[in-house]
Design goal:
Involved in pre-mRNA splicing. Its main location: nucleus. The protein is an alpha/beta fold and 752 residues long. Among the domains are: 53 residues; 127 residues, Alpha Horseshoe (Serine Threonine Protein Phosphatase 5, Tetratricopeptide repeat), CATH 1.25.40.180; 90 residues, Serine Threonine Protein Phosphatase 5, Tetratricopeptide repeat; 164 residues, Serine Threonine Protein Phosphatase 5, Tetratricopeptide repeat (Alpha Horseshoe). It is built from 25 helices and 9 strands. Strands 1, 2, 3, 4, 5, 6, 7, 8 and 9 form a 9-stranded mixed β-sheet that branches. The termini are far apart.
Length: 752
Amino acid sequence: MPSIADGSASPSRQAATMSANEGKGEAIRQELAKMANTRAGGTYIPPARLRAMMAEAQSSDPGSVEYQRMNWDALKKSITGLVNKVAIENIKFIIPELFGGANLIRGRGLFCRSIMKAQSQSLPFTPVFAALASVVNTKLPMIGELLVNRLVNQFRRSFKRNDKVVCHATSMFIAHLVNQRVVHEILALEILVLLLEKPTDDSVEIAVGFMREVGAFLAEEAPKANNSIFDRFRAVLYEGNVSKRVQYMIEVLSQVRRERFKDNPRVLEALDLVEEDDQITHEIGLDDEVKIEETLNVFRADPDFLENEERYKEIKAEILGDDSSGSSDSGSESDDESEAENGEAADQERVEIQDRTETNLINLRRTIYLTIMSSAAFEEAVHKLMKLSIPEGQESELCNMVVECCSQERTFSKFYGLIGERMCKLNRVWSEGFEMCFRNYYDSIHRYETNRLRNIARFFGWIIAADGISWACFSVVHMTEEDTTSSSRIFIKILMQEMKERLGMKALIERFKEPTMQESFENMMPKNDPKSTRFSINFFTSIGVPQLTDGMREHLKVVREEALAKAQLDEESSSDSSLSSSSSSSYLSDSSRSYTRSPSPRRRRQRSYSRSYSPESRRRERSHSRSYSPEPRRRERSYSRSYSPAPRRRERSYSRSYSPEPRRRERSRSRSYSPSPRKRRSYSPSCSPSPRKRRSYSRSISRSRSLSDSRSRSRSRTRTPSPPAKRRRPARDAFSPERSPSPKRSKRSPTP
């Protein structure tokens, strides 16, 4: 029974397995088709699954579009990885792997793009990439020609766009291809003529760098053309249309030529991989029409994919077969050498791990110090310092040692200032190093004594005035009371005085007022806080450069005017609110008015007003009386007011006499005041005491007008004198210079 069951079940099990495999294959094909329609190859696929998918696609249809797309992605990854991994030590192993693991004919566009991108991102490895390109060019000249065409096109575009970085990288790659004889030297001469035809700082700088790389080759292969190029450099130097830094670069290039380019050989021994008989040189001019074939960078289905793959296998066998004969003899020797090199490298790494005393750094500082002290002139010192083998990443130590040596002197010596200026204008590395030193020394300047502080400040003032470092370094200076110390203020003071002495006041002010540099000076000349602005104004005025504060003074003036305007607006709004509140609560009782007129035969008119307010009766009375007198051509007008408040009663009237009552507060508006029985206050120059503390105000104004031939108008004010008393405190009258003594406080009977 079991055997029968097994025999009957086996066909169904096989059918199920076949259907599952077919479903799985269909899913893989669908995913491959989806990837073929995308530009970047779709999402990430693990390597194991990718290999399974490629095996499945190859077994089903090796020439399908899906398989070609996957093969293209693998080709791109392989070429990019090998190009990025190449170095002097492993280039002999990378080249066979590159030919054997990738179809360079199909991926020649990918190879050119990868090697150009890698070279632009790592310029020190340019000789290595040029050696790799020369080896590939001997086997596949079409790739070398395509690479040169693309480099020429890229140089043209970058030169027209004034893209200094790309132009410099491209010219350096072309120079090393000329050294490797991949391209003819006529291209190098055309580039030099173009760069020096209309010299600018950037073009001459690129030409100097290009000549340093290709000068040794031109001196041997085209000496006459090389001499003419250096004559043009000399003419540019004598014309003086370029900056000092570029002039120094031309002088250094002349010195390198006199030394026969010993630091810039044509080809390093480790990178001389091609025999002269095998070299293929492309004669391409700068003005020739070039084909860059951008379509080779993207995937395109090949209908003859299988035939082309078989053809490349034959080419690969031929290339690697030629190389294998030469490499088989030296296989054991290379293995021994590699083992020895690995052992030495391991020993060096072990020593570096154990050495934690910074012995190398101390020795480097000692060497720099002795080099500076043994030099008679600054040119000799700079020349010796440039010849020192300074490890990569420790360039700042040289800048620090120059500043430290300067600070140790008893007084500032321009010897160090000239050294720093020359170094900054020779190479941008030293300029950036001194900028970093400025930031570090400004942050820690409080640790130095006064003499060292003075020398450091004068050194940086010298190189800043000489444009050795950028003026943007002033962005670290925050000229506020909180962010500065006495040492930092002294440092800035001495630095500014040195710059003023070197440049002059006019040039110094113009440099500080450049619109493009205002962002770097906003912390040094703050305008966000009036307190900091005033502090900065006082500081720069005290150190002798008040012209720098013009902008801050104008800004502070505008801020003050805005503050005053705002205060006036606030005061007006508050006064309006108080007036509105008082007017709303003033009149609460009824009011009545009576007008009486009595004409007189005389031409004299007299007008009087009397008012009385009685809060208890909640009534307001107002009477107006007018009388005319026949006095000729005379008009008299008088007003009188009196306030006689009673207990729980307020009365206001206009009269000449005042009769105070006990416990009554009477107020009248006049120029003579008599204090109340309980409390006495005086508001005018003439004050008279009363028996009780009483405050009264009386005001009498008479106005007369005479209508004679000479028409005049007079206004007089009279005062009611108070009883004499002892003078206490004088007061000032607004209308008359007369003064009366202020009475003492005493208890007296009220005056009638």
